[in-house]
Amino acid sequence: QVQLVESGGGLVQAGGSLRLSCAASRSIFSINPMGWYRQAPGKQREWVATITIGDSTNYADSVKGRFTISRDNTKNMMYLQMNSLKPEDTAVYYCRAWDNYRPAVTYWGQGTQVTVSP
Q1: Using one digit for the tens of pLDDT, what is the confidence trace for 29-44?
Q2: How is residue 88 annotated by DSSP?
Q3: How many angstroms separate the CA atoms of 65 and 104, rounded?
Q4: Which of 47, 66, 87, 96 is the most exposed place for a label (fewest CB within 10 A)?
């Protein structure tokens, strides 16, 4: 079992930046890949970005060029740097990780709220 804890959310004006963090309860060498998802009010949860243990990254078109996903394997941490934020980025952001040894098993964090004002 892996616990994931997100932090770093908050209220920011459009055009501003936030950095989200996801702390894993055990070595992130055992969880791969890792990713960020988000869920806006009244909408389904959507994928934002993914990073592998080899630092291969993928982004949703809606955030490409504005968001950067990264991970620090020595600290068991994953990050999402969000720049040029837009009101439509407002959502609860979730950290997700796949068990490296049991690919059908995934873990979710509890989420952190990001609110972007116009």
Answers
A1: 888 899 999 999 999 9
A2: G
A3: 30
A4: 87
